[in-house]
Amino acid sequence: MDNMTGESALQQKVIAYRRALHRVPELDFELPRTRSFLLSVLEPLGFKIRDYGKAGFSAYYDCGKVETIAFRSDMDAVPIQEPVGCSFASVHDGAMHACGHDGHMSMLLGLASQVAAHPEAATANSLLIFQAAEETIGGAKGLCNAGVLRDRNVSRIYALHLWPDVPENTILCRPNEFMAGTFVIDVAVAGRSAHIAEWQIGADALEAGCSFVLRAYELDRELPKAVCRLIRFGEFFSGTASNIISDRTRIMGTVRAFDNDTFAYFKTGLEKIMRDLERTMGVKFTYHKSEGYPPLINPPELYSRTQATLTKAGFTWEESGAPNMQAEDFSYYQHEIPGLYMHLGMGGGARLHNPDFTLNESVLMTGVQIMWTLLKDGPPV
Questions:
Q1: What are 91-150's pLDDT values in tens digits?
Q2: Which of 75, 78, 129, 143 is least enclosed by beta carbons within 10 angstroms?
Q3: Which tens digit of pLDDT belongs to each residue from 102-116?
Q4: What letters, b where the CB count within 10 A reaches 16 and e where it falls short, cover 75-86?
Q5: What is the fold, at CATH topology level, of the domain defined by 7-179+295-377?
Q6: Residue 220: how many other CB atoms lie within 10 Å
Q7: Under CATH, what is the fold of the domain 181-291?
Q8: Contact 106, 138 (CB under 8 A)
């Protein structure tokens, strides 16, 4: 953890960055004030900025080395109204940094200060990636398609995500499967309405929808417990009146897994359930599957080398016993180059995406130190 520039002064700066960013949360791809603030810090430090449109931008510092290492931060907030009481609360109604992205950005700005102050200490050039739309459709895919990693010949990439239910200042990670891949299910059922007293002459779209959900859950239970996956439905709309058989139902949910065979199992099984219900209940199913994020798979070799580097430097490392069923678009970067995604513990508090979420600012400097150590001492791939 050596070569840290005026650690207490830098810590104060990083906290100030976080609070300034917390005040201006913006959603999806529309991030003008967030970008403006980030650039106001990075450009005076000598970073070369490359704009990739709405997907985000990169900031590059040439330390005179052959290798380039990238670090990613997400920029977008979530559509939550922040409660009254915080002295640096959101000034944008209906938007709040309730997922820690303000902390992620401030940690990268702290790293930028270190790089600019000590380029000779780095073993690689530094590429900081600031990405939009992690919470929605995945700005990472757009950045990768635009060549953000190829443009600077990046050899590996890291990301830290602040995590409430991990001990304070502890790195939580896992080799291989870490965060789930997803697809979203949108099912429509067309039936035939009838008076409730003559239900036999109708085709009950509500009953068919209920049967579909229950059979989908049975399909899930047929898989071995060792297979990490889930299928769950969060939306169900049907009918128009209590005394009329429903002629339409809409159901939305998600499948999450870590391998193509499991995704194919659910796709085939759900289609079979729909065809069976059409034959037996006289309804018509239509089905749309929209792709979410690919599974996030941490390369075992990069995992072990990074663990060795950081534990040698004095950081606390914990290996997660099971994959996390939440999704993360950092997986797109991993499809291009080796990349490691880690959680950094905040030691408790409200969970992510909650209006009561608060960020433990004392861990921000730990995040800066982790990334600086990887840039300064990190093992080559």
A1: 999 999 999 999 999 999 999 999 999 999 999 999 999 999 999 988 999 999 999 999
A2: 78
A3: 999 999 999 999 999
A4: bbbbebebeeee
A5: Aminopeptidase (3.40.630)
A6: 17
A7: Alpha-Beta Plaits (3.30.70)
A8: no
